[in-house]
Design goal:
Blueprint (H helix, E strand, L loop, with lengths): L6 E5 L5 H14 L5 E5 L3 H7 L7 H9 L2 E4 L14 H9 L3 E7 L11 E7 L9 E5 L2 E4 L5 H17 L4 E6 L7 H15 L4 E2 L2 E2 H10 L7 E5 L1 H12 L9 E5 L4 E5 L16 H13 L3 H17 L13 H17 L1
Parallel strand pairs: 1-2, 1-3, 3-13, 5-11, 8-9, 8-10, 8-11
Antiparallel strand pairs: 4-5, 4-12, 6-7, 12-13
Helix pairs in contact: 1-9, 1-11, 5-6, 7-8, 9-10, 10-11
């Protein structure tokens, strides 16, 4: 394999983050990745020790800027007004990583009676996550849902480009346009423009409240499609969708901009399981595989995805949340060994 000369910063994170990052690194190294992986710190645990205005130390931010992409292990965001903005939101806004992409796909053993395969596209730099909120009295606080045409235009463009690249013929935009007429109005106008420019792709709008019940009642109707929405709406929808594929521990994700990307498992840091070797490493491992594909190693990505699917469907070495009793490290070792064998063939 040629030396790609690519570097990725790897944030260890909080809670179970470091052990999940170890799992991801174990698999990538077993596959002989040529990406230089550089460990660094960010998150609430280091912030509680060292303080500062952000969860990301200056040294880590400098490293992020010097690398071609980054990987974020799960981090904890403390829900207090005096605590900093989350690591993920900070990095998304800093590098303008406007497309948060979460594929939703079932595994045969976990969902024998349900087959799902669709993708969630989430605008990731504005909306309510812009963090513009303030108190106007002791009893009243206001949050602003910031929506810009530029922000809507680029997430919609990315969605339609993904659809064309992967031969997907249907997109479901999710709004609450009957109530949020101005903000979702801008979003919808960009959908209409893109639809006119891409006549081969069907568009069907859903309101957020109806979409949540459809994902419970009949999620199969969204197969071979893309769901796209604004920041908070799609955060909720993608979590709801993940409930159909066995475990949030299976949901991997990417945050992609024009020149940079961050990869991360979609779940949180699960501090109560820290050090217990219980947590499902699937999302962490697959996010890392996606990162090295982004950096020019698609064969490694394909081997790891195939190996993970094989391990989960065999069911011999899987964690408690997907019907097994194996430690996370045992599941990781099984994936690493099979992926390595696949690359030798």
């Amino acid at each position: 394999m040629a030396d790609l000369g690519k570097k990725a910063a790897v944030i260890k994170g909080d809670g179970t983050g470091p052990e999940l990052v170890d799992a991801m690194l174990r698999v990538l190294r077993a596959c002989n990745t040529q990406t230089e992986l550089i460990l660094c710190d960010a998150g609430s645990e280091q912030w509680e020790k060292h303080g500062g205005a952000t969860y990301i130390p200056d040294s880590t931010m400098k490293l992020l800027e010097e690398c071609n992409a980054c990987y974020k292990g799960p981090t904890t965001t403390i829900p207090r007004p005096d605590a900093p903005r989350s690591v993920a939101v900070t990095i998304r806004q800093k590098f303008q990583l406007y497309s948060n992409v979460r594929p939703i796909k079932t595994y045969d053993r976990l969902s024998p009676n349900r087959k799902l395969d669709f993708v969630c596209f989430r605008e990731a730099t504005e909306g309510l996550y812009a963090g513009i909120e303030f108190k106007i009295s002791e009893d009243v606080a206001i949050a602003i849902r910031k929506t810009t045409r530029k922000g809507c235009q680029r997430i919609i463009k990315a969605t339609f480009e993904w659809a064309k690249q992967h031969n997907i013929k249907k997109i479901f935009p999710i709004t609450k346009r009957n109530i949020l007429k101005e903000t979702d109005g801008i979003f919808w106008s960009e959908v209409e423009k893109a639809k006119a420019e891409n006549p081969g792709i069907e568009v069907e709008e859903y309101y957020i409240d109806n979409m949540t019940q459809q994902l419970v009642k009949n999620p199969e109707r969204f197969n071979d499609s893309i769901l796209v929405s604004t920041n908070l709406f799609m955060d909720i929808i993608s979590e709801c969708a993940s409930g159909n594929i066995g475990s949030i521990g299976n949901v991997y994700s990417a945050n992609i901009g024009d020149t940079y990307a961050m990869f991360e498992p979609a779940h949180g840091s699960a501090p109560k399981y820290k050090g217990l070797d219980k947590v499902n490493p699937t999302a962490a491992i697959l996010s890392g595989a996606w990162m090295v594909e982004y950096l020019g190693e698609p064969d490694i990505r394909n081997a790891i995805f195939a190996a993970t699917e094989q391990v989960i469907n065999e069911g011999k070495y899987v964690t408690y949340d997907i019907g097994g009793n194996s430690p996370g490290t045992k599941m990781t070792e099984a994936i690493a060994e099979i992926a390595k064998q696949k690359l030798r063939k």
